[in-house]
Amino acid sequence: MSAAKNDMPPAGAGQAMAGWLSVAIAASLFAWFWQALGPVAAGEVIRYSFDWVPSAGIAVSFLIDGLSLTFALLISGIGALVMLYSTKYLAGHEHFARFFLYLTLFMGAMLGLVLADNLLTLFVFWELTSITSYLLIGFTHSSAESRRSALQALLVTGAGGLALLAGMILLGVAAGTYELSEIRAGDVAITEHALYLPILILFLLGAFTKSAQIPFHFWLPNAMAAPTPVSAYLHSATMVKGGVYLLARMHPTLGGTDVWFWTLAIAGAATAVFASLMAVKQTDLKQILAYTTLMALGTLTMFLSSDEGYAITAAMLFLIVHSLYKAALFLVAGIVDHETGTREVDRLGGLRRFMPITAAAAALAALSMAGLPPLLGYIGKEVIYAASIKMDAAWFVTAAAMAANALMIAAAGIVAFRPFWRGEHATPMTPHEGPWRMLAGPVLLAALGLLFGLVPGLIAGPLVDQGVKAISDGAAKPAELKLWAGVNLPLFLSVATIALGVALYAGHERVRSALRSMGEAAPSFDRGWDRVLDGLKGLAAWQTRILQSGVMRVYVYTVFVTLLVAVGGTLIWTGAFSGLPDVPFAELQAKHWGVVFLIVVGTAVTTITNSRVAAITGLGAVGVGVAIIFIVFGAPDVAITQLLVETLVVVLFAVAALRLPHMKREDGFPNRKLDALLATAIGAVVTAIMVTITSGPINRRLTEYFESAAWTEAYGRNIVNVILVDFRALDTFGEIAVVAVAGIAAWSLLKGPKSDETEETR
Amino acid sequence: MEVVLSCLVGVLSAAAIYLMLSRDLLRFLFGLILISNAANLAIFTSGRLITGNPPLILEGQDFPVDEAANALPQALVLTAIVIGFGLFAFALTLTLKAYRRLGTLDTSEMRVAEPREE
């Protein structure tokens, strides 16, 4: 499956530079975060803030504490190793430089996500990780499977992102600020706020889709369509941990309630146990690792449910443990694939003779994954058990953790023991050791698992303790990390787990076939996803057929019926219209009646005639009538404009009419009675609105301003003109532009290409 | 008088909408002209009607006489008339062009952009 093989032409110098540049960027970021270790270990919190939209109180702000620093070091450190690995893995690939661009962008987005201290900043980076991971998962864009997986990941995490945005806005409204550190420090208790439940549900939707908790887990195994280094990166320390990070970050704000505890504990436990069963069922190295990643995400979610110091320590420690061994194992899987040409465990065996260094790295990482001493994974497992027996619902959490851990041992054996140490198989390519750039990552990461296991103090102080402090807002006491904690219940649980795990590994082929036969009966989330997408497409097609009928009458009808229902309905519903007032016949003189008569007759003629000349005459009468009204009621300028425009309309129409057909009688058109009914109803509504407006009070504040300022400030005696050319000059300028554009458009239509004329077939 | 003009605006709107619902594009255009007139009259009337006192400031004075006509709706209507004319002119040109290409002004026959589904 690997896109590049060693026999491909070498990358150009520019391409190679793109790779090394990315490595350098990641490494220098890692170095920069490294120097923050000292201050953070001392309990300091580093914060940077820049104004973004100050008027809306939105800032771009970043915060480095134990939690974000742990993530930042993992992201930049593993990022540098994965990039180094990729310079060899993808050497000669036609889109080599593009790959590094995507990977570097993704790293930047991920760093922004974990460092953000402002909800909206966090959201922007959250979405950027979704988009960049879409590009990475779909990197092999010629494959339909890749494209489907990429789109699936984007849609699932993108939908969660939208929910998250809604939750963030609600939280911002509830807390009165978008700064996370201010929300934590503020005196608004979000968990007691009326909006708590909606906020929590929306945040959990965001976190669970990103971190692939059941029932949103299906996109993650499909995302294995990505090149192996991408899987190693996205599924160890970054992308999928985004949701876990969010849960950890929001723990002080949203945690501590029963809803929080049970939702996280149940979703996490279900994901962990389900995923570890699925892991044993797979035969593809990457698929096994994908499901073990799900197991880790479930475990982390489960332990973030609690306020207990041990539980948070367990989550924080397991985060580091998992990132180290999972990145190493993915990279090993990539080497195996690269050097042997297959990732099927049934076709691999005895590889330690050909690739001893890879085998050693794989063994170390797998031992950490299995949780055996003296590796860091062992301490992780001990703390997990110590936490699980202290938590609420201890039996539930302990049982879930134990089942998942035992299955992890079996999975570790299948991934890292069987291909290297069991009987030999012929592979598609003659296997040999990987090049150093590809070995550096797994060896270093696996060795760190051993080093931290032997000297847990290296990470305890600066990262784990400070991380626990950040997650619990200083409330929880971090657990002590040590290899030998004495003879206690966690030790017995560990021994039992190891025994169970070894037994499961010994019989893993039988377990696998049992799971296979069970799996046939179970519903598939992936197929359900296809059905949801088909349903969406069907819905879109259906509503397009209804709304976009292509018949203009239907569109016009839609507009006017909506108008009638919305405006008329509001009038009736609010009871604003209080009936037609009396007509003051005494005020009305003959000239008023004359004008009204002129307009009504003109309108009637235009409406019922079948003659173009009669219609345009009626329109002219209406226009002149309106102009007379303007004159009578003190608007001479408006009247002049009206008369001028009315004349132009008639002239233009007369010219056009020479080239247009006569009007047809409408007797043949159906539904004209219905049209008349709708028109009359809207006319009545319009009258009702006008009566309601004119019988209420009027606010003449603006008019008074213009009256007082027209001469004293603008030195004009015609107030209407002053408004147009002075106070609202920009509007008038816009109006001129509109007319000019309409003129240009009309001219270009008339002077358009003559080729159109060929369609003139009558 | 506001009541009478309110009724007049209703009549103009009803006639305009009836014409715009027609399948004949020419009638639609007539409806367009009528509805602009109705809208202008509505804006004008909602500023209240004052007879015979245009909003002008006489020589030697700083302010208009009390009870001058409302200047604000007049300014709005002036703009609206011109924009309405631009709209009409463009719609008329479109109609001309459409007739030249399609040979009909019956909107139910104009299905170039959204053809009937098979």
From TrEMBL, chain B:
Major subcellular location class: membrane
Database matches in Pfam families: Oxidored_q2
GO cellular component: plasma membrane
InterPro entries linked to this entry: CPA3_antiporter_subunitC, NUOK/Mnh_C1-like
The keyword Iron-sulfur is assigned to this record: no
Membrane topology: Multi-pass membrane protein
Keyword annotations of the record: Cell membrane, Membrane, Transmembrane, Transmembrane helix
UniProt subcellular location: Cell membrane
Residue ranges of the TM segments: 6-21, 28-51, 71-92
Family statement drawn from the similarity comment of this UniProt entry: Belongs to the CPA3 antiporters (TC 2.A.63) subunit C family.
The protein, known as: Na+/H+ antiporter subunit C
Organism of provenance: Kangsaoukella pontilimi
